[in-house]
Amino acid sequence: MQRRKTDYLWVGVFGVLTALGIPWFLWGSAATWAGLPVWLWWHIGWMVLAAIAFAGFTRGAWDRGMNLNGVGADD
Amino acid sequence: MTESALAVQLGVLGAYLVVALGVGIAAYRLTGRDAEDYYLAGRSVGTVVLLFTTFATLLSAFTFFGGPNLAYNAGPEWILVMGVMDGLLFAILWYAIGYRQWLIGRVEGYVTLGEMLGDRFGSKRLRALVAGVSLFWLFPYVMLQQMGAGEAIVGLTDGAVPYWAGAAFITLFMIVYVVLAGLRGVAWTDTIQGVFMLGIVWVAVGWVLSSAGGFAGVSASLSANRPEFLALGGGLYSPQWMIAQAVTIAFGVTMFPQINQRFFVARDDRVLKRSFTLWPILVLLLFVPAFLLGTWAAGLGVAVPEGANVIPVLLNAYTPAWFAALVIAGALAAMMSSSDSMLLSGSSYLTRDLYRPFVNPAADAEREAWLARIGVAAFAIGTFVASLFRPGTLVEIGSTAFGGYAQLALPVLVALYWSNTTRRGMLAGIGGSQVFYVAHVFVPATTIGGVTVFGSTYLTWDVALYGMALSLLLTVGVSLVTAPDSDERSERFRVGTGAD
């Protein structure tokens, strides 16, 4: 049951990462910070965040959904 | 162009060819005589090489030419599309499709996608369909690369070398190289190339910034000359368009033969884990500077002549001639390395999935290794001859290849995870969506009763997305209403040890 829950958690994390890869809430905004558009800073921060999340996935949840050993993962 | 710049360009290109040949020979000496070693480097590739060979294969020419041109003309939002496409979606598919294929391929010894599906569904027809569809999109795509390289040589030598001779030289070099080196050598040169490109793009950014007045200077000129480029969205960039591009290209890329085959080559799962984590970082490091250069060029009022690329023009204006020459020669070399990978994978589809099952099932391993190399030569000569005539049909197919490959992705994904998928479901899903997509590429748009059919979008969404939905619907729907035949082996994809 615990495993199920963390599975959904990761699906959610990947979903949010992808959905907000483009900062829709900044649509039309031309604000800049330090010479670059704010939405570009969002992109830079978001990619770093994604890498951190992916690193977390490879440590704690790799093999999810792969049906190794019949069930979920062999942590 | 000055004499010295020409000398630098030819020097860099020459140096690249010599290094590539050296690497090729070293790889040849290490490569065994069987097809698995030739095509997959014995499934022994490590993190850095896998990451860079996938990356270089994917986008090398686009990074320096196409992408910055787009940013120059329409604004830098393409950076966000690249982030979603390659940094996020492709990384997730790297796990969902790539890791799963790697697990299955390691156990069953598969070399191509068609082979894997054909064996699982007990169907030579499915194997041939997957290979045939893949080659249909790949052949014109390689032709486009050769055309680009041939034209770059014309530009490089100011027309002293005619187009046909440039393209012929490059084709010949690629054949010799790929025949010798196999995947091991191709992946090594890709890595050298990737590191070189990554370094040089940052040097270019630094140089342009320091001669154009730093961040403050380029930012001020951008908001003075092209204020609309700072705002997110607008012009070409609509939400529908950005989403459609990111989704179709990310899914399409996974089915490109040279990328899909790389799913099989990792040494162990640590390699896949590390490369999965590093995707967003690599995207950030490479694309942000490359596309910003194109954007800044627009702000700085750099005039790009018709048919030219913005990066060389910008670098000629703001950096010394030798540096600009270095970048151009590097980009040409990058185009060649992408084509190398495509040739190698194309030939494996040709010989393993079409020639062997249908023409000569008895071919032994040694004979197959020879056939593989003949396949490389045949494929390259074919695309070279086509590039001399440049038929409009092929150009059109090549430029819609990503959408074409995207149609394969969902049926493959379903097959990888859902054991009730049937052969008929796969044939329907792949065949149906290809027919749908190809019809939309070729049948001219017509308006019937106020509704435009066979256009490039429906309700402002790209037609490739509808094709993908259709492929999913057909694969699942037909699988639900048909029973598997006795020779379909769903246990092939079970992966796990405890499930048997």
Polypeptide structure, described:
- The complex is a heterodimer of chains A (75) and B (500).
- Chain A is built from 2 helices and 2 strands.
- By secondary structure, chain A is mostly helical.
- In chain A, strand 1 (32-33) and strand 2 (36-37) form a beta hairpin.
- By secondary structure, chain B is an all-alpha fold.
- In chain B, helix 5 (113-120) runs antiparallel to helix 6 and helix 9 packs across helix 16 (401-417).
- The N and C termini of chain B lie far apart (67 Å).
- The model of chain B has no long low-confidence stretch (mean pLDDT 89).
- At the A-B interface, helix 1, strand 2 and helix 2 of A face helix 4, helix 8, helix 9 and helix 11 of B.
Furnish the topology, listing elements before pairings.
The complex is a heterodimer of chains A (75) and B (500).
Chain A: H1 2-19, E1 32-33, E2 36-37, H2 38-60
Antiparallel strand pairs in A: 1-2
Chain B: H1 3-30, H2 35-40, H3 47-74, H4 78-108, H5 113-120, H6 124-156, H7 163-211, H8 214-225, H9 239-255, H10 257-260, H11 269-299, H12 310-318, H13 321-358, H14 365-389, H15 392-399, H16 401-417, H17 423-442, E1 446-448, E2 451-453, E3 457-458, E4 461-462, H18 463-481
Antiparallel strand pairs in B: 1-2, 3-4
Helix pairs in contact in B: 1-7, 1-13, 3-7, 3-11, 3-13, 4-9, 4-11, 5-6, 6-7, 6-13, 6-14, 6-15, 6-16, 6-17, 7-8, 7-11, 7-13, 7-14, 8-11, 9-16, 12-13, 13-14, 16-17, 16-18, 17-18
Give the biggest beta sheet of chain B. 2 strands, antiparallel
> Which residues of chain B sit in consecutive blocks of at least 5 with pLDDT less than 50?
none
Give the topology string of chain B: H per helix, E per strand.
HHHHHHHHHHHHHHHHHEEEEH
If classified by CATH, what would the architecture of chain B be?
Answer: Up-down Bundle
